[in-house]
Recover the amino acids of this structure.
């Protein structure tokens, strides 16, 4: 699992690549901590290269959303594949996040 974060103006863009499973979740959580610490940035999480997400991965995304809500920041999920969209649909994430496929 590879993660990266880049800053573009008032926006953090996090890229997730590979399988966000239970084994990877602890390191990914540490890697994405700057998103939780952000006070004035909107967040885009690019999932175009994310192959799989487990419940541990979903918790990481929920935690990011929770911290962003405190500062009224927006969290957008970008280009999740069809399998991840199914997981988002089953878990109600479609109602929690702004999801863009363009």
């Amino acid at each position: 699992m590879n993660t990266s974060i880049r800053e573009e103006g008032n926006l953090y863009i996090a890229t997730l690549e590979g399988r966000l499973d239970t084994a990877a979740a602890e390191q990914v959580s540490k890697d994405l901590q700057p998103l939780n610490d952000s006070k004035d940035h909107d967040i885009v999480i690019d999932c175009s290269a994310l192959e799989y997400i487990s419940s541990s991965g979903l918790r990481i995304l929920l935690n990011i959303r929770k911290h962003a809500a405190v500062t009224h920041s927006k969290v957008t999920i970008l280009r999740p594949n069809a399998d991840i969209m199914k997981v988002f649909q089953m878990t109600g994430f479609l109602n929690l996040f702004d999801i863009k496929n363009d």
